[in-house]
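User: Predict structure, ligand heme C.
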Amino acid sequence: MNRLHLLLSGVPVVLASVLLAADVAVEPVRNPLAGDRLELPKDEPVLKAGPGAELVRSACSSCHSMDYVITQPPLTRAQWTANVEKMKARFGAPLSTNEIPDLVEYLEANYSPPAR
Ligand code: HEC
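Assistant: Predicted complex:
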């Protein structure tokens, strides 16, 4: 065995100890869902302020984001009524029949085409 061989035979040992040392320094991987705090995205779309906004937010946000309301092309009162009734009848939104007019009132006031 010449000198070079002697030198090279030590390489794996040196490498292994470097890797081991590096391994100890590595931060433990944490599951973000395992902790007691879960950060939600802060860019949740917010409805225009006004009478009924809170009612709509609480009645309509259990299944989807308010983006569905906000990014809709402006709908007429009749279209909003049909939309809300569809949420109830087809998708099972837990809305009572007597809150539908208040929901539609807000939606028409804030997300309808401008009156001519
Ligand atoms: C029970 C669950 C649920 C609730 C509560 C709910 N929606 Fe929806 N909504 C849906 C589903 C399902 C869709 C269709 C999603 C898709 O097509 O990707 C939808 C779609 C929509 C759309 C997009 C247009 C369309 O007709 O697909 C609008 C606008 C909308 N919802 C408004 C509302 C409003 C306003 C409320 C409150 C009155 C509401 N939603 C409450 C389930 C719900």
